[in-house]
Amino acid sequence: MKIAMIGGGYVGLVSGACFAEFGVDVAVVEADAGKLGALREGRMPIYEPGLDRLVAENVAAGRLSFGDDLAAAVKDAEAVFIAVGTPTRRGDGHADLTYVYAAVEQVAKVLTGPTVIVTKSTVPVGTGRRIGEIVREVRPDLALDVASNPEFLREGSAIGDFMRPDRVVIGCDSEPAREVLRRLYRPLYLIEAPIVFTTVETAELVKYAANAFLAMKVTFINEMADLCERVGADVHDVARGIGLDGRIGRKFLHPGPGFGGSCFPKDTLALVRIAQDAGAPSRLVETVVAVNDARKAGMAQRVETACGGSVRGKTIAVLGLTFKPETDDMRDSPAIPIVSRLAEDGATVRAFDPEGMEQAWPLLPPGVVYCTDAMDAAAGADVLVLVTEWNEFRALSPERLRAAMNGTIVVDLRNVYDPEAMRAAGFNYHGIGRGNDQAIGHNTR
Predict the structure, then answer these.
(1) pLDDT tens profile 402-412
(2) Which of 18, 172, 228, 263 is labelled catalytic?
(3) What's the pTM value of the predicted model, to 2 decimals?
(4) CA distances from 92 to 96, 262, 272, 285 (A)
(5) Which domains occur in the chain, in start order?
(6) Does the active-site annotation cover 172?
(7) What are the pLDDT digits (tens) for 286-317?
(8) Residue 316's beta-bridge partner residues?
(9) CA-based nearest residue to 10, from 37, 46, 43
(10) I need a labelling partner for 127 at 20 to 30 A (CA). Which of 26, 133, 234, 303 fits?
(11) φ and ψ at 52, to 5 degrees?
């Protein structure tokens, strides 16, 4: 079986490599010359654990190739996946479908036989219908089916998510398209992964609804963390107490500085606009967007409060810049408003991230000092702020940190450290939502 993947970014590259691992012949088309050159040389344009090995093995086996010849890639392909970007459209919050529609039109022009055009990109409800109109306008001579197959890949664990998914959602309206995609996903049938067939519109909405619901869980526990601080409760015990309820579940109940990344921010905003345009506004999702934006903007104020109201003249070590660990993605990372505000208010910021330094550089103020490791960032710092919970930060010795720093303030925005251990090392420790611990000075867990 042969397929083509249009777009060698995060979704296209991971999906293409995983399909190749299934034994499928995958041709990935990438228009960016720099990215294409890197892929051909075996250099990954993104950081994702295990991806370099998976790509190398399937390229060596002849199942995975990279190129910019669209006609050659789609020739004899039973399915052509559209995996280009759908960023937030400037000015109104809608998903920008410029790249999707351009890719569909280009594919339709060079096709020589029937195929299924599948959107892997996250697209608003109705996009599949419009794609069908485009292909009929461009190629009325060909029988081309349209399907939606949204991805549910978490950055940092994307390969495992693809190979052992909670579910696969496929939206299509024709039996030929259904059969092609059923055969493509046959390895997952064999391990009894749930395969959900729906209409195209339903599949498009499932992706947005899933991300919005998870974003609501994150926002809810963040608000509960704020309440815990006011009333003397422990947010971790609250999260455990509600998460053990099977109707709620334990995942995404971790307090922090607000969600970021490539999906939640743009998808919640896009769903708000989709619902408004449909005349069925989603007040819950609108509130999630507003609360999360305010939370990220307010995190620097937490640091300033811990410093007595001002950070002017202080040296602040910031550990973690990416929106989550095990990725180099800086999109909508809480670190951006935090670092920008601290620098604007007169602090010297010394930052370190295991994978995101190169991506962070154009997004952060010019005065930020980029360090070689966590201890280098902490050296001589008055304050330490943990933004992203990389495992290597969890392993830092409180005693070593205290010896390296000039000051004693630690603001832990992910609740990574043990408050008792930090205080025993001489730190003035500030976590998130640990009301009893912060008010009384002990850890109740």
Answers:
(1) 999 999 999 99
(2) 263
(3) 0.91
(4) 10, 18, 11, 16
(5) 2-198 (3.40.50.720), 212-440 (3.40.50.720)
(6) no
(7) 999 999 999 999 999 999 999 999 999 999 99
(8) 349, 383
(9) 46
(10) 26
(11) -60, -40
